[in-house]
Structures are given as C-alpha cells and as structure tokens.
Amino acid sequence: MAELNLVEAVNCALAREMARDVSVLLLGQDIGVNGGVFRATVGLQQRFGAERVLDTPLAETAIVGTAIGMASMGLRPVAEIQFSGFIYPAFDHLVNHASRLRHRTRGRLSCPLVLRSPSGGGIHAPEHHSESPEAMLAHVPGLRVVVPSSPARAYGLLLAAIRDPDPVVFLEPTRLYRLFKQEVADDGEALPLDVCFTLRPGSDVTLVSWGAMLQETQAAADLLAAEGVSAEVIDVATLKPLDMPTILESVARTGRCVIVHEACRSGGLGAEIAAGLAEEGLYSLLAPVQRVTGYDIVVPLARLEYQHLPSVARIVAAARRTLEGS
C-alpha cells in the first residue's frame, strides 16, 4: 500500500500496464520528456523508452488518428489530450472510426484505445481548460466513458480501461489530481467497468454523482446526516454504458433522488438518469427528481468558475426539496 493522490495513481497504473504488456504505449503532447502538463506520465519515458512513450506535435486529430491505427494493428495505445476542451478536433476520429471499427469490420478488428484527458473545473484555468464534455462523448455508440472519483478508483478503472478490447474515454477530474491522498495497492487488480459504486448507504434520499462532484455530494450527505436525513451516495463511475439497475434499486429503497454534475444542465447525463427513473422507477418515487448542475453557459474564467460549479449548499437544498415534496 502507498499513499497516492489521483495523478500519482494514474502514473502507477500506466507503469503497471506497460510493465505487464509490451503492446501498451503512450502518446501525447509533452508526455515524454516533460512528463505531461500535470505530471501524470513523469518518469515513464525514462523507464520504458521513447519508442513506447511518444511526444507528439500539438495536433489532437493526429494523436487520436495515429492511436486508432495502432489499436487496429494489435497495439494498446493510451493517448493523452492535454485538456478535455481540446478534444473536439479529435471528435471526428472518435465518432467515425474508433467507435465504429468493430461494427464496420464485423468483428475482424477492434480498437483497444484509451483516450485520457483532464476534465472539469476548479483550477482557475482559462477557457477550454475547465470543460466537462462527457455527455457528448457518452452519446456516441461504441464509446465507453469512465470518470474516476478517487485515487483508488482511478488506478483500478484505468487498468480495466487499458485491458478493454474497445475504445474507452477516461476523463480525469483535474480538481482531484492533488486534492487528497488515499491508500492504493499497486497489485494490478482492476476494478469492474460498467457498474456504479455505492459509497454510502442511506434510506431517505439517493444522491447520484461522479468525478470531482463526489466531494461536494459526500459533504452534503454529512450535513444532511446531522439533520437526521440518511442519504445514499452513488458514484456512477462509468457513464456509458450506464448502470441504471443500481440507481433504480437505490431509489426503490429511498423514494427520492438528487443527481449532481458540473457539466451544463441541458442534455447532460443527469437528464438521462432522470429519464431512466421516469421510465423504469416512476412508482418508486415519492417526489420529483432533482438535478444540481452547472449552468448553460461557457465555464466562467478563473475564480468565477466556482459560481458555476454545484455547491454543497445547492445539493442540500435540492435534497430538502425532495423531502418536502413527499
């Protein structure tokens, strides 16, 4: 066991898989000599060589296109996009090639590609550096979208993503990179994809979230507990495919649900989860589903972004509304 923050856990998982499987290689801007803008790949080029940790030009389209070619020929590339706001030039390749390769070739080829990218706000960055595009990515058939919420989950989920035979977009919450440490066992044990994790049992209301927003969500659960409200906290973790049964089972117990995400409200994953509850869990609900989200605006610059991110107070207020609506 070692005490690691999230960025160290990512580095540890990458090193573990590169040592285990010679087909795993990394590519991206400044990831080799400099170890990445957030130091997620520091030391890996020195350990595994420049042929397996490749510095690329500043060209997201080329990074992902090259990685797709590598994946189709039996390699397992892990490509890094420096910030998720820079992912859009590569969207063509993700939608038209990575996600469709297995279908297009009737299973003769697959695309075991992982696309890593820092995502979300909280570091006072300029425009394009604090975006949360997970809903756009999750809308694409054939893409798996994963968002870890802690160092231990980042380690285990990244191992699983690299071993998966199909493309995975792995969005790493920038705000969590160095926010806290926890014990992580570098044992090579992957965590399961496509399942939610129940972080806290409860009986009065279900709080559903993912990524960095689990920090505020769990803090809200603590405040609600002090008021005598028992909140169950669910970490979605894999946004696509979505583990709706776990959420439905929780809401069947609590009768209420609050969904929290920092991405814009319109068309967000919260709406997809709310639709699933309306379609399959309506008779379990004792009150309308509440969503606590970012606003439908470009993420504000610098410190103003904290006005955009959901707060503990907004989550607690939403939970109280569900309780009053029974």
TrEMBL record:
Q: Which Gene3D superfamilies match?
A: 3.40.50.920, 3.40.50.970
Start and end residues of each Transketolase-like pyrimidine-binding domain: 4-179
Pfam families per UniProt: Transket_pyr, Transketolase_C
Top-level taxon: Bacteria
Alphabetically ordered keywords of this record: Oxidoreductase, Thiamine pyrophosphate
GO MF annotation terms: oxidoreductase activity
The coenzyme or cofactor needed here is: thiamine diphosphate
Q: Which InterPro entries match?
A: THDP-binding, Transketo_C/PFOR_II, Transketolase-like_Pyr-bd, Transketolase_C
Matching entries from PANTHER family are given as:
PYRUVATE DEHYDROGENASE E1 COMPONENT BETA SUBUNIT, PYRUVATE DEHYDROGENASE E1 COMPONENT SUBUNIT BETA
Please identify the protein, giving its name as recorded. Answer: Alpha-ketoacid dehydrogenase subunit beta
